[in-house]
Amino acid sequence: MNMVFKICRMTGVGACILAYQLAFGAPRGDTLPQVAQLVHTRLDISFDYPHHLVLGKAWITLQPTQEQQDSLILDAKSMQVATVALQRDTGKQLLPFSYDGWQLRIKLDKRYSYRKAYTVYVEYTAMPDSLKTTAAGPVQTNKGIYFVSAGKDSTGQLYQVWTQGETSGASSWFPTIDQPDQRSTSEISITMPAPYISLSNGVLSSRQQHPDGSHTETWIMSDPHAPYLFMLAVGKFEKYHDSWNGMAVDYYMEPGYIAYAKEIFGRTPQMIGYFSEKIGYRFPWPKYAQIVVKDYFSGGMENTSATLFGDLLRRKPRALIGDEEAKWIIPHELFHQWFGDLVTCEQWSQLALNESFANFGEVLWGEYAYGKDAAHHHAYEAMLKYFQQCREGKDHPLIYNDYREESQLFDAVTYEKGGCILGMLRALVGEKAFFGALSNYLKVNAFKAVNANDLRTAFENETGRDLKWFWDQWFYRKGYPVLDISYRYNDLESSVAVTIRQEQEEDIFILPLKIDIYTGGETATQEIIVNRRLQTFIIPYPNKHARPLLVNVDADKQLICKKTDRKSLEAFIYQYRRGRNYLDRREALKACLLAQDTSARARAFLYTGLKDANDGLRKLVIQFMNIDNAAIRNTYAATIDSLARYDTEALVRQAAIKKLRSLNDPAYTNLFIRSLQDSSYNVVASSLIALNRLDRQLATRHMTPFLEDNEMASTILDIYLSNEDPKDNRSFLEIIARQNERQQQGYLVKYLRYLATLNDADTIAAGLEEFQRIVMGIDARFMDQPGMLGNLELLAEFKLDLIKKTASKSVRSSLEKQVASIRSAINHLSANMN
Ligand SMILES: [Zn+2]
């Protein structure tokens, strides 16, 4: 089938992590220089749930940052402002104001002198659903506060309300100066009906019961934090209480998920302790809570002391086994509590000071929890992700002043490359200096906004070294070195000439590198500095009479680069056995995989790779092994079968199943059936697809227990799509019908692709009726209507094309009927959508 469907523009915000590739945006804001600094924010909040309104009272205390301040501008989006007043000890004095739906301009009662604090009172109703955006992003991802239907209980319809401040959503639920370089202490009181509890920043200082059955919870944060990190979540949640050193560490989940809280979040106290010690700065906030909410559109958000997660962790633990995103998101968000929350990027162009650190925090936790190899594997995969983005033409400097929209900042440069740059810096200055500098950076800049030069100052103070060159090439310049490394041995002179050429088009890089020279006995290390386009380094043999067995350039293996290393296969194999780290082995296995079809030695060595201690490398070898080559298949099929059954890591079992299913060999039927019982859903999904390829009827029988299981929904729909069978129509639609709205949109597109494969006009007509019903049931604000209509148009065009190609009258007549029902669906939907 050669039909290309447009992908529905799924919603997503550049919140914190992992969903950053999805578009979002907000206007670059009023660039008037601010003349005031937030000091304290007190909020009294309640909600009109059915109408999605925030009923708020705000007391904002500010200090002028210049003399003679007589007016104030607050960001306040899509609100009705009832009252603006000056709050005095004696009462309120009304102040004149103007409001344009975006900013609140207040005339103060007099001229205030520098640092003379005053408090303004604002009574308002925020209407997030009416927010108009002028930016590229869809409204639903930058409106700051979200009302989500969360089923029913004996009290009636349940809701969840939760916020997303980054980048400028805070001012959609309270008036503030919505800039990352502002900071304020906070006191947030939330009044809500009985079944609900709340979570916000800081400590829960009081809980007050009201005669009407509602209650008010007040949260106090007595250290200042940036407005975009303010949060609240309200809903029917349960709390699992944990602790670290006497400090509360709580996990909030819906009642249906709370049983999994300990399994999902249980290592958090250990993580807090480890990070506190490693970076020499105790966890800075009075508590740490994590909450999982419904229908959040990103991975997680590091609100101060109260991280919020979405669907990624709203799953059974079985679905999280082998899920790489879920594995790293908890340490990522936690590390932000220091890097992002305690010290905060002063502008979004400096976002790397938040996100690069959070990605580096993942690696740091990985070293502790899973070992050095696993951490290095994670860091290396991150670098590959950055290269992938470069291939798409989207490279930019880590500190990126020229961005057009904020979504360009939430990407693999700011996150993945930035994390790797910190890894390089660590290798450059050494372990002690690196963590010493970080500790000082946090102490000097605690509760302040920072930029990349503050970080450089901390490292230069700690090391006494001028590091401008490092910052210039890695923080302020885009690109990466592309190296060609070659060797010429001269046994007469007892030396090896190592030639390094920088092949990238951009300027050359300065690269201090270590070269390890292996002679069989002791290993010698030589330090070099690569700083020209083409350089040759003459390195004497450590043992005059013996040519080295391996010369290993970039021995630390932390460098962000692409390289062609022209060493022999034997040298690579030696590197595998004797090299210092994970990447030594990965490079060697890659060399063997590249030579597997031509070299028996390389083929034989792959066995070692299948037994490597690192699961990522085992997976890599399975994935790239050319099993179509009979010699390889005969040698390794049994080993891969055994890995599919017994490997301890789900990633490896899954890779093995995928490899074996590519053989289409009925001999593996029993393996695939057995693997449907695997502890990881990822393995189950791959096994079900494998079984379906071998024997569709058998697969249908084994699919039954999974039909009701949402974790398997996507896999089952993929199977239906590949089967092209009208009998699956009903089940396809039933599965879509029970998904949340966001999921439904993606699956509806898949459904249209399925209809493209069918030739049964009656099934298609009936299916499209149901399709329309589901589309009309999705809240119009969350629906990509043009996208969905566009996909229907594509389906009609596809069928029209088939009509042109067919000679059979009866087929043509069926196709014409199909086109008629598609057209009817388009007309009906266009007429009823707004
Ligand atoms: Zn992050």
TrEMBL record:
Ranges for domain Aminopeptidase N-like N-terminal: 40-229
Pfam families: Peptidase_M1, Peptidase_M1_N
InterPro entries: Aminopeptidase_N-like_N, Aminopeptidase_N-like_N_sf, ARM-like, ARM-type_fold, Peptidase_M1, Peptidase_M1_aminopeptidases, Peptidase_M1_dom, Peptidase_M4/M1_CTD_sf
Coiled-coil features, chain-numbered ranges: none
Keywords: Aminopeptidase, Hydrolase, Metal-binding, Metalloprotease, Protease, Signal, Zinc
Family statement drawn from the similarity comment of this UniProt entry: Belongs to the peptidase M1 family.
Protein name listed in UniProt: Aminopeptidase N
Originating organism: Chitinophaga japonensis
